[in-house]
């Protein structure tokens, strides 16, 4: 087992780790401009709210190298690739002045490196703050994948869990499979095993039972969008976990960078992604659900702890 970089910039090509086939196969897909970057984001080659935004920033750099006349078209292709996770949309808003000003490739590269470095620093800081929720050796339940491929190492929720393990506060981690992409069973399990953190993968339908049995001391999850009034959009299934956590008195902690926050209040107009790449024609599959503030014990960002 090894640490695999989520992407590698090699000259004018971005090699992006195909997270759909990990850990069985290690394949890097090529992105050559913003359009091919948008395609691999849409297809879930790369996923995880912060990582999508980082890769998009590099995609715009490639676009500036290859065909700067089509910057806005490339920007729009990225904008349409995944609607819910807000980091992408925040970064696309941030980069606008560069495109408007006709910036040159080195400036886009600098921007992409800045976006990447910022997330890395934030994650280190959140790991430190999140540690405060661990009072003694605990069994943790997390969800989906919030580690080194969803965002820079050490991750958001997984960064907190790693840090807590390092301090002797994690006895074990329960990892729901996260169907149908199995980000938990494939990615989170890989990362925990890599670092010797004890864990069990469980089918998604086990979470309520585990809490009812008193087998979970704390839930720590990530987020893809957090509204001004503390509604948390995260991988579908999170809401069910939060409901059970409330019912059985288990702290429910969300860990997400400020780049996952959006200015708007919750509204049903916020797009919730519905996937088209279904395992079978008779399936219907949403990518995210929304956890309301009254189910949330705390939201940890690099700015501190918010108790909604
Ligand atoms: O559909 P995905 O895999 O891009 O889902 C996003 C996630 O990885 C999770 O929802 C995660 O908790 C937030 S991203 C660190």
Uncertain parts: none
What's the number of structural domains? Answer: 2
The fourth-level CATH homologous superfamily of the largest domain is: Translation initiation factor eif-2b, domain 2
Which oligomerization state do the chains in this entry correspond to? single chain
- Give the names of the bound compounds: 5-S-methyl-1-O-phosphono-5-thio-D-ribulose
**Which strands sit side by side, in order, in the main sheet?**
6-5-4-7-10-12-13
State the CATH architecture of the largest domain: 3-Layer(aba) Sandwich
| SS strand fraction | 15-25%
Largest sheet: 7 strands, mixed
Average pLDDT figure: 97
CATH topology of the largest domain: Rossmann fold
Distance between the termini: 39 Å
Number of helices: 9
Helix and strand run? EEEHHHHHEHEHEHEEEHEEEE
**Helix/strand/pairing category:** alpha/beta
Strand runs, count: 13
CATH class of the largest domain: Alpha Beta
Radius of gyration: 19 Å
**Coarse shape:** globular
Description:
The chain is α/β, with parallel strands linked by helices and 308 residues long. The protein has two domains: 7-123, Up-down Bundle (Four Helix Bundle (Hemerythrin (Met), subunit A)), CATH 1.20.120.420; 126-306, Translation initiation factor eif-2b, domain 2 (Rossmann fold). 37% of the residues lie in helices and 17% in strands. It has nine helices and 13 strands. The strands form three sheets. Strands 6-5-4-7-10-12-13 form a seven-stranded mixed beta sheet, sandwiched between helices. Strands 1-2-3 form a three-stranded antiparallel beta sheet. The radius of gyration is 19 Å and the shape is globular. 47% of the residues are buried. The model has no long low-confidence stretch (mean pLDDT 97). Residues 47-50, 144-146, 150-151, 156, 183, 221-224, 234-235, 287 line the site of 5-S-methyl-1-O-phosphono-5-thio-D-ribulose. The site of 5-S-methyl-1-O-phosphono-5-thio-D-ribulose has 18 residues, from α2 and β9.
């Amino acid at each position: 087992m090894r640490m695999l970089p989520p992407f590698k910039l090699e000259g004018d090509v971005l090699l992006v780790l195909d997270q759909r086939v990990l850990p069985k196969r290690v394949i890097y897909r090529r992105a050559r401009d913003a359009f091919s970057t948008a395609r691999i984001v849409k297809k879930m080659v790369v996923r995880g709210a912060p990582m999508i935004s980082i890769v998009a920033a590099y995609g715009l750099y490639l676009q500036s190298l290859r065909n700067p006349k089509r910057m806005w078209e490339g920007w729009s292709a990225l904008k349409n690739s995944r609607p819910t996770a807000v980091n992408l949309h925040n970064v696309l808003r941030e980069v606008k002045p560069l495109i408007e000003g006709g910036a040159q490739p080195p400036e886009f590269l600098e921007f992409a490196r800045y976006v990447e470095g910022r997330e890395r620093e934030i994650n280190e800081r959140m790991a430190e703050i999140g540690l405060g929720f661990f009072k003694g050796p605990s069994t943790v339940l997390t969800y989906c994948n919030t580690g080194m491929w969803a965002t820079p190492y050490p991750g958001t929720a997984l960064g907190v869990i790693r840090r807590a393990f390092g301090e002797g506060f994690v006895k074990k981690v329960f990892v729901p499979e996260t169907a149908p992409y199995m980000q938990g069973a494939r990615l989170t399990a890989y990362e925990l095993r890599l670092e010797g953190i004890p864990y069990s993968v469980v089918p998604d339908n086990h979470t309520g039972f585990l809490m009812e049995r008193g087998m979970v001391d704390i839930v720590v999850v990530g987020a893809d969008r957090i509204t001004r009034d503390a509604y948390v959009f995260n991988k579908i299934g999170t809401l069910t976990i939060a409901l059970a956590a409330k019912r059985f008195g288990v702290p429910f902690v969300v860990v997400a960078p400020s780049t996952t926050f959006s200015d708007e209040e919750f509204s049903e107009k916020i797009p919730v992604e519905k996937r088209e790449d279904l395992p079978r024609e008779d399936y219907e599959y949403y990518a995210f659900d929304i956890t309301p503030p009254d189910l949330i014990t705390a939201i940890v960002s690099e700015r501190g702890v918010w108790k909604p």
